[in-house]
Design goal:
Number of strands: 17
CATH topology of the largest domain: Aspartate Aminotransferase, domain 2
Number of helices: 14
CATH class of the largest domain: Alpha Beta
Strand content: 15-25%
Number of domains: 2
CATH superfamily of the largest domain: Type I PLP-dependent aspartate aminotransferase-like (Major domain)
Radius of gyration: 21 Å
Helix content: 25-40%
Distance between the termini: 28 Å
CATH architecture of the largest domain: 3-Layer(aba) Sandwich
Largest sheet: 7 strands, mixed
Strand order of the largest sheet: 4-12-11-10-9-5-6
Shape: globular
Mean pLDDT: 97
Length: 413
């Protein structure tokens, strides 16, 4: 196992001290939203106490808010490897995607095509399907059912000279599959199409460099990487300048604030900065010689990725030994670089909701349903019978917690 200081890490998260029925709570619900460090809670409270004002005013608290906005953009720029003016904030990834899709629609003509996938969360499907109303053609990429991976041959077949945008997830929030986004970007750019990447699930598990990836847009949400509910959109500057967002007339025209509709969640931005600084601390602990926050974040996310890979191998190995259990997704350990530690399962004869409820009563928190990845659960044939039980690990989880889950499942919960 990678030498993360789990004692120090777990001490940062006050929620992990909770108990249910005299049992320590186990949070395997990370894909739906992670827990937050004390520093995030403190930063939100500190903002509300000392800086609570709208932006661009001629007084101290407003000026602190202005400084906070700049600080938040810088923090995200370091996390994603982009420029400050390529960072847009919003309520959540879904809202930002709808905002962007409406703006892109201004440039589209009837018969233009957009590609989505059956593996994605519908936050990266429905905003694009909305554009079919004025005549845009939406094409869906199929999956390989046996391991829940994208069918890359089918993707290539869908692309043509009318393709204007490819919407793809960096990783599946339901079964953990990591897509070959770099190849998707190359294929799309070869036909002149833009690429929108949903990185909501991926960002908590591995490093990202959008300039190396060369995607046009990438979205994520802070509450999936140990922060509050704040949506984040990266977009290439050329697109932010060219596209025209829908906004109220007096709103500013400068980048990137012309894309930020209404008053932002400033206390949330304070928590976002604290969440990224928490990850930065991990980077300094695993690689003390790092020179700046970007290097520290890369070190942290590389260490987290390896630690979670080891956790995932223990989880998947154990799950495959549970009688009458079906595990969906990649199960070969040699391919675990292509999955996050998120797995979807079913137990024969037990609806996922019933399993989640029974586990919850033992203090083991998991999700059940389709997790808004409706195309996937329909393709797997499980949507009408309750979807999947989802177990989602993050770096504050432990081997001991996995063992407790496996024991419960082996005893039919």
């Amino acid at each position: 196992m990678v030498d993360l200081d789990l004692g120090w890490i777990r001490n940062q998260f006050p929620a992990l001290s909770q108990q249910i029925n005299d049992q320590p709570v186990i949070f395997f619900d990370g894909p739906g939203g992670t827990q937050v460090p004390s520093s995030v809670i403190d930063a939100i409270a500190e903002y509300l106490l000392k800086s609570n004002a709208n932006a661009h005013g001629a007084f101290a608290t407003s000026q602190r808010t202005d400084a906070l906005i700049t600080s938040a953009r810088a923090a995200i720029a370091d996390l994603l490897g982009c420029n400050l003016d390529e960072v847009v904030f919003g309520a959540n990834m879904t809202t930002l995607t709808y905002t962007l899709s409406r703006a892109i629609a201004r440039e589209l003509q009837p018969g233009d095509e957009i590609i989505v996938t059956k593996l994605d969360h519908y936050a990266n499907v429905s905003p694009w399907y909305a554009l079919s109303e004025p005549g845009v053609v939406i094409r869906e990429v199929d999956i390989n059912v046996e391991d829940c991976t994208l069918n890359m041959n089918h993707l290539q077949q869908q692309m043509n000279e009318r393709t204007r945008l490819v919407a793809v997830g960096y990783a599946s929030n339901a079964v953990g599959t990591i897509n070959d986004v770099a190849t998707v970007v190359k294929l799309a750019h070869a036909v002149g199409a833009m690429v929108f990447v949903d990185a909501v699930h991926y960002v908590a598990h591995a490093p990202i460099d959008v300039h190396v990836l060369e995607c046009d847009f990438l979205a994520c949400s802070a509450y999936k990487f140990f922060g509050p509910h704040v949506g984040v959109l990266y977009a290439k500057r050329e697109h932010l300048e060219r596209l025209r967002p829908y906004k109220v007339q007096p709103a500013p025209e400068e980048l990137p604030s012309r894309w930020e509709t209404g008053t932002q969640n400033y206390e949330g931005l304070a928590g976002l900065v604290a969440a990224i600084n928490y990850l930065t601390q991990i980077g300094h602990r695993v690689l003390p010689g790092v020179k700046n926050r970007r290097e520290a974040l890369l070190a942290a996310m590389i260490a987290i990725k390896q630690y979670e890979r080891d956790l995932c191998q223990k989880l998947v190995t154990g799950l495959l030994q549970v009688p009458d259990l079906t595990l969906y997704g990649i199960t070969d350990p040699t391919r675990f670089d292509w999955r996050t530690p998120t797995v979807g399962i079913r137990l024969a004869g037990q609806p996922p909701h019933a399993i989640a409820k029974a586990l919850g009563e033992q203090g083991i928190f998991t999700w059940n349903g389709n997790f808004y990845a409706l195309g996937l659960t329909e393709k797997l044939g499980v949507e009408s019978s309750g979807g999947l039980l989802r177990i989602g690990l993050v770096h504050y989880n432990t081997v001991e917690e996995i063992q407790r889950l496996l024991k419960a499942l082996s005893q039919r919960v």
